[in-house]
Amino acid sequence: MKSKKLLLIICFSLMFSFIIIEDALAHRMLIEEVGEDYVVVGFDDGTKAMEVDVVLYDQDEEVLLEGKTDLEGGFEFDPELQPYKIVSSDTYGHRAEWTSDEPITEERFPRWARALLGIGILLFIGVSANFISKKKDN
């Protein structure tokens, strides 16, 4: 009976935390090359990163240009600069890097699959705790 109450408290606490802590849902910052002289900075949920810092570097890690994205997440620069690396960051700790010689090949799980995996892990922990508490009672 004690373990059922504990499991119930844990479940309600987790549900409550998912409802209340809405701002803590993480998303990844991305840099997309739109043209030779234009990049768009955004997040993997499709929102644009407005007025975030953007720094262009050459191959020797020397700064070519610094600036901020516009309200659409875009950043335009002189195509003659030919940046080797573009780094974007915001005040919340998001950071993205784009390098001219590395194609983006990383595939991400969809958001629903990541959420399902997280719920599965939490269920596994709950069932394991329940099993251990029943084993201690016997």
Task: State the share of residues found in helices, binned by percent.
Answer: 25-40%
Outline the biggest β-sheet: 4 strands, antiparallel
Distance between the termini: 13 Å
Q: What is the tally of helical segments?
A: 2
User: How many whole angstroms does the radius of gyration measure?
Assistant: 22 Å
Report the count of strand segments.
Answer: 7
What are the secondary-structure elements, in order, as H or E? HEEEEEEEH
Low-confidence stretches: none
CATH overall fold name of the largest domain: Immunoglobulin-like
Lateral strand order in the biggest sheet: 4-3-6-7
What is the level-2 CATH architecture name of the largest domain?
Answer: Sandwich
Based on CA inertia axes, which overall geometry fits? elongated
Beta-strand percentage range? 25-35%
What value does the average pLDDT take?
Answer: 81
The chain-level structural class is: alpha+beta
CATH class of the largest domain: Mainly Beta
The count of domains is: 2
